[in-house]
Amino acid sequence: MTDNRRLKRTPRQSVLSDEIYGVIKAKIFDHEIAPGQHVNIDALALQLNVSHTPIRESLARLESDGLIRKEPLKGYSATNLLTMKEFNDLFEFRLLIEPWSAQRAARSSDDFGAEKLRAELKRAHDSLRLNASEQLLALTEHDARFHILISEMSGNETVRRAFEGTHCHLHLYRLFLAAKNNQLAAETRSTFIQDFFDHYYQSESGQLALQQHEEIAHAIIEQNASLAHSIMHTHIEASIRAYSPAVGAER
Amino acid sequence: MTDNRRLKRTPRQSVLSDEIYGVIKAKIFDHEIAPGQHVNIDALALQLNVSHTPIRESLARLESDGLIRKEPLKGYSATNLLTMKEFNDLFEFRLLIEPWSAQRAARSSDDFGAEKLRAELKRAHDSLRLNASEQLLALTEHDARFHILISEMSGNETVRRAFEGTHCHLHLYRLFLAAKNNQLAAETRSTFIQDFFDHYYQSESGQLALQQHEEIAHAIIEQNASLAHSIMHTHIEASIRAYSPAVGAER
DNA sequence: CTTCCCATTTTCGTATAGGATTTCGCTGAT
DNA sequence: ATCAGCGAAATCCTATACGAAAATGGGAAG
Question: What are phi and psi of A69, to 5 degrees?
Fold first, then answer.
């Protein structure tokens, strides 16, 4: 009933542009706008029932974010999936700054930070009760929030910005989605999804990612900087192994 | 009728939006739009003789860059000068990734890269013949190009993006400009500008920055990775010392 | 002096028109 | 059959006018 009250009644508290930015970003996230797909401004404006202005503004921002590519006089299109090299570059960068962030977070850890870490771990645990499809989304979002939280707790705003600027979780989720779709169509080399769930997120014995998150959080809470550093390093390398089958399968 | 013939004559190869983006960025760079100053879209459109559309698009991109702040329903304004904390955060980040970049650049150095390094050093040397005011600008631009070049030569696109995303040279130049203006007005604590020129860029004996650039370039060309790493580290620390008097003087 | 209210200003979004450029399909010639 | 060249449609890019909503500023009342 409340679906488009935005347009008429409510005294807008945020700006339409920002809302549209989020909507388009979400469309990219879940392949409603597929990687590489051309984005027609008129069509998008029509679909979202807004004018060109907020669309163009959003696309400009998304281009700065590296999520949209702009070709002069040819229009906008969603960026392609990560290539092997881009994937490697991304994780090389993460290995450079995230263990450092965890180390710093541990050094200056306080009760307030500890509480936020515990709350986030609890959310992750709760989401394990969801069904498979919702669960993956929920865990991806948890993963994003967890890593961003640690970059915040590093205390260094430039590092946090740089990390968020990679939009790594969006790229990785797109990679996962593509692998999944690819597999459903081809019914071949079908172990990736299973492996991913079993080892990285879901299985009873595994839940590797969540387990590592707990270890990292504890190390930070107990101000064990070098341990936080090394587990984060290990965790990211595990993430590389989990996702890398999804790369290279493309293109 | 003759005022906007730009629109007619040239078979535009780039787009007005992009051009305007550069113009506004330059205005921020040299304090034509002062730190913290409110930016009126109508006024800017009138001044640049273009419509709202490219202005809004540029401001949206500049906001993503962290150079413009947007307050919903209040409009855009230029970001303030770096605070002490922001300054420290920025350089902590640079110390994290730039020595690493130099190391990587050295490891995979080739003739092509060597030639680009030599060309950039030559440009810097040539600019020493300019008068003082032009020289500072030229050397700032050289410094930006040199550091960006090395981040490119690291071979890691994510790292390069993250580095450029800091816009550190723009921020540092604004800091310098503010200190200079402040000093001209107050005629007090007047040694900063002199010190800066003498030790960091200009003096016959000094030219510390350029000298360090040469050393870094040589280390990279000779594929001495650990040396490239350590000199870059030293160089950035020298930069901290050179600029830090300009911080904290503000606000 | 403080608080409230109203008018002006500014921002934000819409709608529309038209020029510029690319894309694509068609025709025709080799 | 292939390819060059032409033209029309689609799309992008910019300009402009207008209206709604919020912020701002100033003055009157308490």
Answer: -110, 135
Instruction: Mark out chain A residues that contact chain B at CB-CB < 8 A.
Output: 13-15, 17-18, 53, 56-58, 60-61, 63-66, 72-73, 85-86, 89-90, 92-93, 96-97, 100, 156-159, 161-162, 165-166
CA A106 – CA A149 distance, rounded (Å): 12
* pLDDT confidence bin for A246, thresholds 50/70/90: confident
Task: Look at phi and psi of residue A31 and say left if phi exceeds 0, alpha if psi is from -120 to 50, else beta.
Answer: left
Q: Say yes or no: Cβ of B21 under 7 A from any atom of strand D.
A: no
Nearest residue (Cα to C1') for C14?
A51
Residue B189 token pair: 């604590």
Residue range A164-183, pLDDT digits in tens: 999 999 999 999 888 888 76
How far is the CA of A221 from the CAs of A107, A126, A147, in angstroms?
9, 21, 15
Which of A61, A62, A76, A87 is most worth mutating to test chain B (most B CB atoms within 10 A of its CB)?
A: A61
d(CA B65, CA B165): 6
Summary count for chain B: helices (H), strands (E) = 12, 3
pLDDT at res. A231: 97
DSSP 8-class letter at B77: E
- What is the structure's pLDDT at A182? 74
CA–CA separation, B141 and A70 (whole Å): 26
Least confident range from A180-189, B183-192, B238-247: namely B183-192
The answer to whether A86 contacts B157, with C-beta atoms less than 8 Å apart, is: yes
Q: Which nucleotide is nearest to B17 (CA to C1')?
A: D13
pLDDT category at A198 given cuts 50, 70, 90 is low
Name which of B56-65, B125-134, B220-229 the model is least confident about: B125-134
